[in-house]
Here is the input.
Amino acid sequence: MSIQAKIGPSILNADLANLAEESQKLLDNGADYLHLDVMDGTFVPNLTFGHPMVKCLRNKIKEAFFETHMMVQNPEQWIAPMSDAGVNLYTFHIEPVEDVCKVTRLIQEAGMKVGLAIKPGTSVKDIEKYVELADLVLVMTVEPGFGGQSFMADMMPKVEWLRNNYPNLDIEVDGGVGPKTIDCCAKAGANWIVSGTAVVGAADQRQVIGDMRNVVKSYLK
Amino acid sequence: MSIQAKIGPSILNADLANLAEESQKLLDNGADYLHLDVMDGTFVPNLTFGHPMVKCLRNKIKEAFFETHMMVQNPEQWIAPMSDAGVNLYTFHIEPVEDVCKVTRLIQEAGMKVGLAIKPGTSVKDIEKYVELADLVLVMTVEPGFGGQSFMADMMPKVEWLRNNYPNLDIEVDGGVGPKTIDCCAKAGANWIVSGTAVVGAADQRQVIGDMRNVVKSYLK
Here is the structure.
């Protein structure tokens, strides 16, 4: 078994005015990584935060694995500052990008791992030729832009197709994933699980994270 | 005397991962308002934060006066969410806006005061026909986008022209303003003073804020 089950909380629905403490709490409760939702108001109709905040967070949290989910029109623009901010995995959407190979190369040259993301309306075939370049593929299970949306189960064939063709690829799902929807994600083959509301708002974060990880593990071969 | 001396720290160079605490500290040390720098990566080459963070901050800090400095390409887009987030004064740049009157009206209808901002390269004459619509005019004393830049004293004629023509207008300056540059701002007629690094990084924030306010007061008629 080469791929692992990982649960990455998104802090989008946490108290963003108290980001370091909220993030540390999630890590203390067993989060495997932090999924940081960067939105620019152009690629998606929401404006969250950028590298200055990620850098401040890194100054407080030295060791955790940071993924930035770049829901931005021009992902090339933020590679250098996000690398400087200590990001580990730079996941960007292929939809607005003309030269995916170039952006991928720049991310690697900046010392980060590469994630490729697709929106619900994007076919998995559109990402096929780039999969070999990526460390991870993110299949969005809601329209990106806001937290708290309902999970789209009809995205699971994309995950299945990726898992069937790339048994060792890290496949991430993001959007409406929680205890009620984790089973079909895990069964389809996702092994990196982003969870926002369901984890951040849980009375017992540790329990929810642990339960979700166990479901994913149960499907890993 | 109808206009007052106000010092509004910018938290751009504070610990953004701990925003509520940093902001409360500034208010406890005598800040008259908070100047919140919203940047979208399009109008300026930096991406800071948007309404989700401002709303979280408002949830923690109920009473303070919040100004959002909208360094964004489409200020109309964020009027409703910033009003919902509890913003008091919505200051936007006229440079990218086609219909300044319309945006101004929408801000007022959303229950916020209106600030009009101009970059260093924009003539004060370009804002003349809109001044009567505004509660405040912001004259940038650095290129907007980043904190820590050097103050541009050659912007002071804009402030003087505004003060001479509008004795009761709130005139704000932002960029490189601190104990060393406050005198020429106050002498020119600015009465709302944004200060980032000089206040946030001060060993004694209360002293710096108080000293700067006293300089401004000394020039108010």
Notes: Chain A touches chain B at residues 12, 15-21, 23, 38-42, 45-53, 56-57, 59-60, 72-74, 77-78 (CB under 8 Å). The domain at 6-219 of chain A is CATH 3.20.20.70 (TIM Barrel). DSSP finds nine helices and eight strands in chain A.
